[in-house]
Amino acid sequence: MGRVQGKVAFVTGAARGQGRSHAVRLAEEGADIIAVDLCENIDTIGYPMATPEDLEETAAFIEKTGQRVVTAKADVREASQLKAALEDGISQLGGLDIVVAQAGVAGMKGQPPLQAWIDVINTNLIGTINAIQVSLLHLKEGASIIATGSTAALMDTHQKNDPGNDPGGMAYVHSKRALSAYVHDLATELAPRGIRANVVHPTNCNTNMLQSEPMYRSFRPDLEKPELKDAEPVFYVQQAMKVPWIEPEDISNAVLWLASDEARFVTGAQLRVDAGGYLKWYDYHN
After folding, report:
1. What residues act catalytically?
2. Which family is this protein grouped under (predicted)?
3. pLDDT tens digits for 13-71?
4. String of DSSP letters for 152-167
């Protein structure tokens, strides 16, 4: 216990899923939390977003750990909203030590297609950059930045079977790839200042994003209206280990480690929590 004792963490996308899991796990280890989420639907995203009630529930889980929490409804696509939420949290909690840029959406099969591209890029890429950049001037030596990538960022997509068919889906891949490059270069600039920046790359993770009709259709394009029972057998293709997905807690443990002093010399890493997916699809010798 207490691996991030006395620290303050800023977590985006904190109302449910991985964001909630990360916020609660950090609180369990002693951090106070600034938790933000959009808490509204996005028209092009084919599954419901988190609600204000979800964010309240996250706050209740954090309070049960004995840690303090400040919540705000904020859109990562709008830097001004994030800045206001963060500065309010800092004024109440006294500082900032950890940034977890988690908020993200999957726009597979989103309609209209080009608007889906825009919404995914603005949320996953611009939103991650916004969350980090409103934080930068508040961070001191020993601080840790963690962004959520995806094993999709590591996939070879140069041979597309149907170019232009799913811009929202491709935007997900591009956004995670581009944010990974951003964090890599940022880590280089921050290293002399003693501030670390890393990316965590999950494989299929058991959240509302994965358990959604658009994702089922992505894995089972041969069916008009696939259900979980149709998609789950295909989910295994992403991992070398014999699991269809991992749990949010599996990612949270990696986030906790990167946030803690146990990883004080780990920066610029692209940390895969992928049940061996990379081993299955790639040869590192090449």
Report:
1. 172
2. Belongs to the short-chain dehydrogenases/reductases (SDR) family.
3. 999 999 999 999 999 999 999 999 999 999 999 999 999 999 999 999 999 999 999 99
4. GGGS--SS-SSTTS-H
